[in-house]
Design brief:
Strand content: under 5%
Structural class: mainly alpha
Largest sheet: none
Helix content: 55-70%
Number of helices: 16
Radius of gyration: 22 Å
Shape: flat
Length: 342
């Protein structure tokens, strides 16, 4: 009779048999910052995925802006729906290239945990305020290393942390799974941001230049399929994950178009000025009164500069919580009068 093997060991065997020689196999992880007893059911990458899903930072993504500040409609993209979109695309790429889907999924779920309220506007504002600057990819690593679990962090594997840190354009993840997320992030946001701009009445689909749609397609489904197929055709059996040159060039042109027509418009700039006044006021207030930070953040003041802790707190906020805290601190509340007849 065959001796029982743990589910984890069975997964190791499946990976050895079916994954590409360029894949990051679960058995070969470089490990965690602090050693832990292995799980008999899950690989280390599966454990990382689960830890991220159950983190507070992941839950907050549902109320963080992608592009439009605190949108009133029900169907605008949030950081959470963007994250799920990136995960789906990254897993599709990993599956097609015989890479480790669990690792790609874990990185995708964690890549935006450190994002600010009010989208990239919030990031630009904190980057100006913080003495050492602010980058959401670096903050995402800080979330999983330090801020979660009341300052203990999630103790994730090297491969997941590296993928989170290097998910931005121009950076180079150590694994091909990290590169899948790097590309999936760009595929996802440029397409759903375009859909949101059309939904908001800022653009019409016909406004997209014809030389772009001729390569990428006219609908979100066509554009995503074009990009995914391009990656697969250009990367299968190689130690690389990349778009074909024609699709890469058209994607860069679409991104440039979105900056000109959506991200940097007069309306967007006007809303960003409001966000800047709000975030600047919160930053100055908590820098002057760090003792009024929540207890978890106060407990970290002995180990980190107060400016860093204030950035940690503000970047953790959802859009509506930032507005709530601002109102609580700066907006006077009306008097409640006792009924004088009684």
């Amino acid at each position: 009779m065959e001796k029982f093997k743990s589910v984890r060991e069975k997964t190791f065997a499946v990976e050895e048999q079916f994954l590409s020689p360029y894949a990051a196999k679960s058995r070969e992880t470089k490990g965690r910052q602090r050693e832990e007893e292995p799980c008999q059911m899950r690989t280390e990458y599966q454990r990382d995925r689960d830890r991220i899903i159950y983190s507070k930072a992941f839950i907050r993504l549902k109320n963080k802006t992608q592009v439009f500040f605190s949108p009133e409609g029900d169907h605008y993209v949030t950081r959470l729906t963007h994250t799920l979109d990136v995960s789906q695309i990254a897993r599709s790429l990993a599956r097609a290239l015989s890479l480790n889907e669990d690792l790609a999924e874990a990185i995708a779920y964690g890549h935006d945990l450190g994002h600010t309220p009010f989208g990239h506007s919030g990031e630009r504002i904190l980057n100006k305020l913080a003495p050492n600057g602010f980058k959401h990819n670096e903050q995402s690593v800080r979330v999983v290393d330090v801020l979660e679990k009341d300052g203990r962090g999630l103790n994730l594997t090297f491969e997941v942390r590296d993928g989170i840190l290097n998910h931005k354009k121009g950076l180079k993840p150590a694994t091909l799974e990290g590169k899948c997320v790097n590309i999936a992030d760009r595929i996802a946001y440029i397409n759903h941001d375009l859909n949101d701009a059309v939904r908001a009445g800022i653009l019409k689909l016909d406004d997209v230049p014809k030389d772009i749609t001729a390569v990428l397609g006219s609908t979100s489904r066509e554009r995503i399929n074009t990009a995914v197929n391009s990656v697969c055709k250009n990367s299968f059996g190689k130690a690389e994950v990349e778009l074909g040159s024609d699709v890469q060039e058209a994607s860069d042109e679409l991104r440039k178009f979105m900056f000109e027509k959506v991200y940097l418009t007069q309306f967007a700039r006007g809303e960003e000025l409001k966000a800047e006044r709000m975030i600047s006021a919160l930053y100055d207030y908590f820098t002057d009164h760090p003792e009024e930070l929540p207890p978890t953040y106060v407990s970290l003041l002995d180990d980190y500069p107060k400016e860093q802790i204030v950035c940690d707190y503000i970047s953790s906020m959802t859009d509506r919580y930032a507005v709530y805290v601002f109102n609580r601190i700066f907006v006077p509340r009306g008097w409640t009068f006792v009924d004088e007849i009684n």
